[in-house]
Write the structure tokens for this entry.
Amino acid sequence: MRPRTATTAPPPPPPPTGGFDNYAVQHDASAAAALYSDSAATRLAADGQAVAHVADQSGLSNNATQPIVAARPVARMSGALAWLEFDGLDDRMIVSPDPSWRGADMSIIMVVRLQSVSSAGARVIAGGVDGAYVALYQSGSTSTALGQGTARYVNGAFIAGNTRGDLYTAWVRDDWVVIEVAGVDFSNANFASGMQFPGWRSDSNLANCEIAEVLILSTSDADANRADIVAALVAKFGITS
């Protein structure tokens, strides 16, 4: 009889955002026990239910919450994926201020699906509760007032354009896209009451969108791990271009 050769179990699959795991904020709507319908985070949200609490997967308890019932997004689920659906009217989630994410040189990476609608005003995907927008877009706009951040990316590729219209063209696709704003100064006083997504200053310029992931990490970590993080997100959400 032929001797049996020893076998080893295959390695576990990589985390949903690649091998990097040093996030200050990690909101993954598809993760187990991520979305809750109550503020106390005791009842998991089902498809179609309003979400009051998004559990932070970073281990730092930087959860996203919304105590106002009318301003809660809706949970959507399909297969292994889940996301938050925001109505563009008053829905928004808030991350309380914490030194772990309020650094002076941070990156925010989001997996979003933005609606291709023209608007007289900009639409903000993330911003400060007290002011300062971080990620925004505006169809046809030549304004270079882009708010916080020094570099912007789409699916890991640097966006050379520097207008709100350029960001609209890059990010708005009616399908999932990975957006990033790097070099964000979250230590700015406008984030003293927290960060929100979408919108800024509570209910200003809220984007009508769907958001599946929100990640915050240092810009240096983002620069070193961008390709790995984006590749994992692209594969997870079936992004093809």
Remarks:
- Confidence is low (pLDDT under 50) at residues 1-15.
- The helical segments are 164-171, 219-237.
- DSSP finds two helices and 15 strands in the chain.
